[in-house]
Amino acid sequence: MSAEAGKLSISEAARTWKKDRTTIYRAIKKYNLSTEKSRDGQKTLIQFVDLCGALGEPANSDTRATAGRHVATPQQNTPNVTPFFPEKVSMLEKQVEDLREERNRLLGIVEKQTYLLEDKRSQQPKNSIPPQVLWVFLPVCVIITAMPIVVWFLLDFLKR
């Protein structure tokens, strides 16, 4: 265990969890774990609790006793679950809530647009005349228009 409380080097973490160093590096990348350099700048250090959140508790009970200096080990009757970065969890919960609100806002817009885009093909414009009425009025209009001409011709014919 490193001299800095609660932190392990990559090699120490690999020995503690009995994993390969590349596995530790993958966990750091996958879970976005924060690392820092040791005081002498020779080693990369990572928080023991962060590794517990990513990899679970170390399997060796002796290691738990050693790690107990840095982190309280779980009791026998409690489940073996370490909270995984409470600040990151709360940040992600906030992001999920924001995304839900954004989704609901966008669904509302879609519903309004759908309502406004109702099928206008079956509806007649308010100022237009339906085609059935045109077929009735067209002959009437022709007769009314032609009537003075017919009357004039009749009068002219009767004068002769």
Descriptive report:
This protein is mostly helical and 160 residues long. Among the domains are: 61 residues, Multidrug-efflux Transporter Regulator, Chain: A, Domain 2; 33 residues. The chain is 58% helix and 6% strand. Strands 1-3-2 form a three-stranded antiparallel β-sheet. Helix 1 packs across helix 2. The longest helix has 31 residues. The chain is rod-shaped.
Salient structural properties:
160 residues, mainly alpha, Multidrug-efflux Transporter Regulator, Chain: A, Domain 2, 3-stranded antiparallel beta sheet, 3 strands
Mean pLDDT: 77
Rounded to the nearest angstrom, the radius of gyration is 42 Å
Q: How many strand units?
A: 3
Strand order of the largest sheet: 1-3-2
- Specify the overall morphology: rod-shaped
Structural classification? mainly alpha
Relative strand content: 5-15%
Which secondary structure elements does this structure contain, and how are they paired or packed?
Elements: E1 7-9, H1 10-17, H2 21-30, E2 35-37, E3 44-47, H3 48-55, H4 61-67, H5 86-116, H6 131-159
Antiparallel strand pairs: 1-3, 2-3
Overview in brief:
The chain is mainly alpha-helical. 58% of the residues lie in helices and 6% in strands.
